Amino acid sequence: MYPVILRLGPLTIYSYGTMMAVAFLVAAYLTGKELDRKGLPESAASTMVFWAAIGGLAGARLLTILEDFSAFVHDPIRFIVSGAGFVWYGGLIGGFVAVTWCMRRLGLPFLRTVDCVAPGLSLGHAIGRIGCQLAGDGDWGRVTTAPWGMAYPNAIVGWNYPPGVRVHPAPVYETLIYTAIFGLLWALRKRDHADGSLFWWYLVLASGARFLIEFVRINRPVAGGLTLAQLMSIGLVAVGVWRLMASQTRARARGPVHSTP
After folding, report:
1. Ramachandran class of 77: left when φ > 0, alpha when ψ lies in -120 to 50, beta otherwise
2. CA–CA separation, 19 vs 135, rounded Å?
3. Closest-CA residue to 208 (of 170, 165, 177)
4. Distances 38 to 30, 117, 199, 251 between C-alpha atoms, Å
5. In 68-220, which ranges are continuous DSSP H helix?
6. CA distance 173 to 150
7. Which residues contact 42 (CB under 8 A, 6 or more apart)?
8. CA Rg value for the chain
9. What is the rounded distance in angstroms from the CA atom of residue 76 to the CA atom of residue 81?
């Protein structure tokens, strides 16, 4: 693993931070292009991504605290300022709340705008997982004998397995899956669909993928043999399916929907 890309005197460039910066830049670029295509201000993309970063980091840290509250109580200052330990779903929820507030301030139509965000969000997630893989931030999976199994001896989060033990490279799985989801959403974006449908599909596909990935991850179960991420995945898949069905019902009632060319 390569948690540090480069050291130049007092300056240290970390792989995780670098890939997160790339993820936000790519998401902003793709969102801007989609906003412009749909007749919305392209400049709003950078503002939304800024607030997504703020809300996402805050939400990711908050959910981490809730997941391991005993460690937080033991040493709250170190737990908050540590560079490790961010929960993706906390970031998604925090970012969603922040971006929704931003859209309201900018006067952007909610459903049309979140459709513009969905493809970039998928690819940004994929790129972010590359950072997790390079840094070894504890996202690896269970022990495996598969030929593609990997070890993370230089991980920023403690690697406690004996030498030679290999585990599922879960961040690699997620990068591949979320890239495929991006490809699908990008292909669907110009087809006829009700506003919001692309985002609801993102919720279904990305949350469904995370539910499956959790079976090879090392997160502890919290209820019914399922992890917190799996329980949240079930909820978000349900929301996505419900909204897609509602959108289709309204679309049939109104007649054909024509997407922006």
Report:
1. alpha
2. 10
3. 177
4. 13, 12, 15, 19
5. 69-74, 76-81, 88-106, 110-135, 170-188, 197-213
6. 12
7. 32, 33, 35, 36
8. 19
9. 9
Beta partners for residue 148, in sequence order: none
**In this structure, how many other beta carbons lie within 10 angstroms of the beta carbon of residue 13?**
11
Q: Give pTM, 2 decimals.
A: 0.85
Measuring CA to CA, which residue among 147, 259, 122, 261 is closest to residue 202? 122
Tokens of 215: 């079976």
pLDDT at residue 245 above 90? yes
pLDDT exceeds cutoff 50 at 83: no
The pLDDT tens digits of the residues spanning 1-49 come to 788 888 887 788 888 889 989 999 999 999 999 999 999 999 999 999 8
Residues 208, 97, 182, 125: is their CA dihedral positive or negative?
negative
Q: What pLDDT was estimated at residue 105? A: 94
d(CA 21, CA 15) in angstroms, rounded, equals: 10
- The closest of 100, 12, 9 to 55, measured between CA atoms, is 100
> pLDDT tens-digit profile of 164-215?
899 999 999 999 999 999 999 999 999 988 999 999 999 999 999 999 999 9
> What pLDDT is recorded for position 23?
93
The owner of tokens 């419900």 is 242
